Amino acid sequence: MFVKQLSVFLENKTGRLNDVLSIISGNGINILSISIADTSEFGVLRMLCEDPAKAHELLKEHGITSKVNDVIVVSIPQAVGSLEKVVRSLEQNDINIQYVYGLSLDDEGASIAMKTDDLEKTLEVLKNENVKLYSQNDM
Amino acid sequence: MIWNESKECMSRDELATLQSARLVKVVNKVYHNVEYYRKKMQELGLEPGDIRGIEDIEKLPFTTYEDLNKTYPFGLAAVPTSELVRVHASSGTTGKPKIGVYTRRDIEVWSECVARCLSMAGITRDDIIQVGYGYGLFTGGLGAHYGAEYLGALVLPMSTGNTQKLLDMMIDCQATAIACTPSYLLHVAEDIEKLGVLDKIKLKTAICGAEPWTDEMRDQMEKRLNIKAHDIYGLTEICGPGVACDCEFHKGLHIWEDHFLPEIIDPATHKDLPAGTDGELVITNLTKEGMPLIRYRTKDLTSLEIDKCECGRTMARIQRFKGRTDDMLIIRGVNVFPSQVEAALLNIDGTTPHYMLVVDRVDNTDTLEVQVEIAEKFFTDEVRGLEKLSNEIHNKLKSAIGLNAKVKLVEPNGLVHSDGKTKHVIDKRKLYS
Known about the structure:
The structure holds 2 protein chains of 2 kinds. By secondary structure, chain A is an alpha+beta fold. Helix content of chain A is 30%, strand content 37%. Chain B folds into 2 domains: 69-325, 3-Layer(aba) Sandwich (Rossmann fold), CATH 3.40.50; 334-427, 2-Layer Sandwich (GMP Synthetase, Chain A, domain 3). In chain B, helix 2 packs across helix 3 (35-43), helix 8 (182-195) packs parallel to helix 9 and helix 10 (338-346) crosses helix 11. The longest helix of chain B has 22 residues, at 12-33. Classes of the chains: A alpha+beta, B alpha/beta. The A-B interface holds A 5, 7, 9-11, 37, 39, 41-42, 44, 46, 60, 63-67, 69, 98-99, 115 and B 374, 376, 379-384, 386-387, 390, 408-414.
């Protein structure tokens, strides 16, 4: 139940994000969400898109460094405390969250994509919590 | 003031006679005591008797960094270790440092050479001098220190790294002179202005070296600190700072020709060039006991003027340096070769050998940014993974070149590749004009 995320190395240069996005969308690949982790020197663009493997190849052809890696995408119901519930369950199981970002996948409410230091264990924990998990096919 | 008038002002004829006698002696010495030199001379069919004076200098083989590297560390020593009392070293191109070894007498000669330079800058035994060069293998700290003590000045061995302490002591002890790199002195000037303590300092002379600097920098430091600034030159292999220095007329750096025989050669044809012509500076140690070098190619490009100076000295003057014949950079007084950076990077997983050194001078301090291309297989979605890589590069570079460099990870193929030879250095400082 992992989802493939495309991570892209970006130098902090004007127009770099646009370069990446236009290569991907220019080839008809739909982008579902993006998030950028930035430092003073560089940024890491993380995105969920329809065909991450193809997007990776396209970027490679253009000399842009990227990588496909697994993340977990969880539906967060529209109710007070639902995100906290998910996060608390991970904490109780000693799972450290490396990053998390929000996205909107359908009309049912919000979702989050997350990477933890133990994705397999995270999956087990979340299954027991009865939260809705998305697969690559849902993308 | 002239420290040793009988030498510094001797006629060119007398000087040539002295140099010839000393050259014959040193050639005999290395032939009989240094196997490496003996072989080099034998390969050329040379015997010590073929060298009768300085007019025969061109018959002798050159000594290069490669020779130092091959014989590292003590292969060129002309006396047994029991006679040696000191080692100094600076960076070499391929990892092995360039070293110099000294007998007790070498230290004394070196000290006198530095004393001549300090004296030329107007420093006397009444002065209180701060030595702001690093103490250690680097020749700057101990070289200036011994020279200043030899002169009889009161020495404050400040070393580097603590500007606040330097300023406190400068004010408390009423220091009148300072020896440090020119860029550091400008940095100090800035702090003095920031703190508004110019009226509390008694500094009147600075003797700056270990990196090339410009007349504009001299004007700046002289005006801002109300001092006189002099340029001192030297290199570890030959002895260290104190090989040459400029007098109050600033018409070039007087080289102590009674100890260091200078030549200017055409770097392509290796032929000696006449005074006034630009070429590579070559130096022969005439008096060094520990590790006398014969026709050492400094890779510094300059010319020599030999007419008598207005100051009264007859010693030849090294003119403004025009550059280097190799790719050595001098950053904050430290010799850095791009090949050292390359070697350090190759030892780190995660980087291709593609890199660029960007050297600049910001607020009078040299800055070094090392841009490193990040290999795709090591790219990670985690920022901390990339930061870890960046820190590792920083630390490896620090131990390889001894400088804190700002590391910037860049996209592969993001660096400028010129045709044929890859460009590895962008120096924005414009030190050679």
